[in-house]
Amino acid sequence: MPKVLVVLAHPRLEKSRANRALLQRFPQHKDITLHDLYERYPDFNVDIPEEQRLLEMHDLVVLHHPIFWYSVPPLLKQWIDMVYAFGWAYGPGGVALKGRTCFHVVTTGGNAQAYTVDGFHGHTLNEFMLPLKRTATLCGMQWLPPFAVQGTNRMGNAELERMADAYSRMLTGFADGTITAQQVHGQGLLNEVVINMPMP
């Protein structure tokens, strides 16, 4: 079965109601690893060989983070810049990540309507994520659409619980092989597939 690595990057996790709710439902599964970058590297001194070793041990890479100014938090950006190294992840001989699958779990304060062509931000969430998509595909990884928890500023407890349940079932499904990249490839958001999946 696929081994799943969840790379968490939230600089103020203790203040994030939505992300804490998701993590409270994080599955205890032998093939799912949670790796908290801000806990591991509070000084931003990333251990590149160790991070590369961790990536090599997993088949599916999930980058879990809030959207910061239409991108990722600073430590995750540094992690990508340094760990996805020339000659290791891309370029001549850079095939360490080839064949792996990658997607993002993101939270946004703005709701889904805000991330539309006619909405407040003027672009879709997937459009804002194009540089991240190209980074993954340049490294030979298969890109899947994000799992997005949007409108967190006004989200009620019941809806947040529903999203946390979907998050847990999604990670477990990928690790167990009941959700595959082929099933979700080409969807707008992973939410569209996972939330409506029947309970096991």
Would you give an account of this structure?
This protein has 200 residues and is of the alpha/beta class. It has one domain: Flavodoxin domain (Rossmann fold, 3-Layer(aba) Sandwich), CATH 3.40.50. The chain is 36% helix and 16% strand. It has nine helices and six strands, in the order βαβααβαβααββααα. The protein has helices at 17-24, 37-40, 48-56, 74-83, 125-128, 130-138, 157-176, 181-184, 191-194; strands spanning 4-8, 32-36, 60-66, 101-108, 142-143, 147-150. The relative contact order is 0.17. The mean pLDDT is 94.
The major β-sheet equals: 6 strands, parallel
| Topology-level CATH name | Rossmann fold
Report the principal-axis shape. Answer: globular
Q: What is the H/E string?
A: EHEHHEHEHHEEHHH
Percent of residues in helices: 25-40%
Judging by the overall fold, what is the CATH architecture?
A: 3-Layer(aba) Sandwich
Number of helices: 9
Name the CATH homologous superfamily. Answer: Flavodoxin domain
DSSP strand (E) fraction?
A: 15-25%
